[in-house]
Amino acid sequence: MKRTSAGVLVILALVGLxxxxxxxxxxxxxxxxxxxxxxxxxxxxxxxxxxxxALAWPVRRSLRTGIRIDPFRALRAVSLARSASLLGxxxxxxxxxxxxxxxxxxxxxxxxxTVTMIVLIxxxxxxxxxxxxxxxxxxxxxxxxxxxxxxxxxxxxxxEFGGSH
Length: 165
What we know:
Elements: H1 6-29, H2 39-65, H3 71-103, H4 111-137, H5 144-147
Helix pairs in contact: 1-3, 2-3, 2-4, 3-4
């Protein structure tokens, strides 16, 4: 499994940014209030980041001590870490798009909405960092057998090709 690349995270953040801006634009164009996520969303994102770290820690410990763990447990930990980093990038972009929309309006936005968006962006960044660290915890060291090129089998083949069979 490849590590999560920064390019994918940036692209998802940009998609989220456009989506957040577009959502608030559509809501105000139809006469509705702009979308403001609950502050509990930020708390939930931090909890998911902590859970990703908590699940990845035993994998890291087993890699360092050599104690074998269930491979499916390691797979679940790295899958959670990867999906959490993708979610964090999308949510950071989404919150950024809504914040840009609020700050570009001629009316001064309420302080509560602005603070909520900033907290959402910050907690999303915390989620991405926690998830990337958890993914790093689940990285296997290089196998010495993988670095050496494999030699062909010593069997010379059939007699018509120079073999001794």
